Amino acid sequence: MEYLLDTAHLESIEKYLQYFPVSGVTSNPTIVKKEGKIDFFSHMNTIRKMIGKSRSLHIQVSAKDHEGMMKDADAILNRVDADVYIKVPVTMEGLKTIQALKSRGVRVTGTAVYTKTQGLIAMEAGADYLAPYFNRIENNDGDPEEVISSFADMIAEYGYPTKILAASFKNAGQIDRAFLAGAQAATFDPAIMESALSQAVILSAVDQFGQDWKSVFGEKNISEI
To answer: Any bridge partners for residue 185, and if so which?
Structure first.
């Protein structure tokens, strides 16, 4: 399983790299908007330095037409680095762009995936990662687990190299469901996972362990006795 941080907030990335087994960082224009009017390329290069080359960095194009997407991709590859995964929405123009980028050996993440049709054709077009929007599919009366499992079945059946990078979550339970449905990776707001690991029942259990220990050994920890 791969856990990716869906954020461009530098302080959050620095913080959560210390806690989570992070495989990479993803962003999109909406996420970038939250950071205000930043120096975009300087910001992305800072993220790359923070996560290193061993983790993946996924940056989304802002243009909606093929020509604009290609120019965006070239700018990202030239001004960040050639190892970036270019995020491309799976639209008509996006499919054209995915195929053009893959013909050049560029790493591509197909994003804004809501339907099986989008995912299946993006796999055939050569997308390295495929990002189905879990919560948004569910909000549109779809079954995100069925969508993900259908992608996983096709990958297993035909040997596509594509990985399923589930996205768009409102809680950690959805992340679990995505993995159980067959996703190999998930990208999420790190605050979701922190919340899941800080539930009152968990903290209560830890507090009880501490109280039980102190009742016998006082304030000394194991390393101190």
So the answer is: 2, 165
Give domain status of residue 102, yes or no.
Answer: yes
Instruction: Tell me whether residue 33 is one of the annotated catalytic residues.
Output: no
Amino acid identity at 10: L
pLDDT score of 50: 98
| Residue of 87, 116, 170, 214 marked active site | 87
pTM of this structure: 0.94
pLDDT at 120: 98
Phi-psi region of 174 (alpha: psi -120 to 50; beta: other; left: phi over 0): alpha
Residue 150 forms part of a structural domain: yes
**What does 141-186 look like in DSSP terms, one character per residue?**
T--HHHHHHHHHHHHHHH----EEEEB--SSHHHHHHHHHHT-SEE
Contact 48, 57 (CB under 8 A): yes
Q: Is residue 198 part of a domain?
A: no
CATH classification at residue 41: 3.20.20.70
